[in-house]
Amino acid sequence: MTEARGSAGPNGETHARRTPGTPCWVSLMVHGLAATEEFYGALFGWEFEPGPQQLGPYVRALLDGYEVAGIGQLPADRHLPVAWTPYLASDDVDLTAETVRLCGGTIGVGPLDAAEAGRLAIGSDPSGAVFGIWQAAAHLGTGITGVPGTPAWNELLTFESASVAKFYETVFGYEEEPVVSADSDYVALHVDSHPVAGIHGVGHALPRDRGPHWMTYFEVADADAAVAHLTELGGHVLKPPRDTAHGRVATVADPEGARFSLTQNPR
């Protein structure tokens, strides 16, 4: 994980339209919407309000009145992996979706309008990792960062970084910065010379039941306390809290199996 922060105000607020390629939103599609609201509400202090319903029942999570994430209900007959999905900003989602296809990716949903909020598509890169594309209108994306309960970072876990990094660079215009290490295959993706996401090649360490996938990191005040609370709420610990160069990090899953990470900033 590489440290990065969005364009936040003095209290963590973000208001401006994101530069194309910048992660601007995270969304989760689940089978049990009410139970999932209860879990994340207790874990992060989120409250919820209805959002656009184009893809079925959908709520936006709020922290101190700011929108931070979305959670939707999967149709009963759709047996898809339950996973957090980052949305990457675009000025023209239709053009971006076409570029995804031309570069070897696929588009599974859209492009379609989400009421007055904006326009979206959901696609996957050539390795199969799913991501969203968001063209903002009324809804600019995550409204606050840099405080506990908010998305802090998005990282692609894949077999190897080089080829898939070229895909994202071509589609979204990222600048690449390989992290030189004898024992790590990592590329930081930059927008306007600022790191916004990472690609981590982990080879056969990828979970067999998941394959390449994006991982969202959520900020917490105390990683150990958050992990203990998560297990009390019915979540699962995949990697217990550990110290890294960017703070204390744990990898966990919610009761439906959606994987995410908790990160505590260094003190």
TrEMBL record:
Pfam families: Glyoxalase_6 (PF18029). Residues 150-265 form the VOC domain. It comes from the Bacteria. This is VOC family protein.
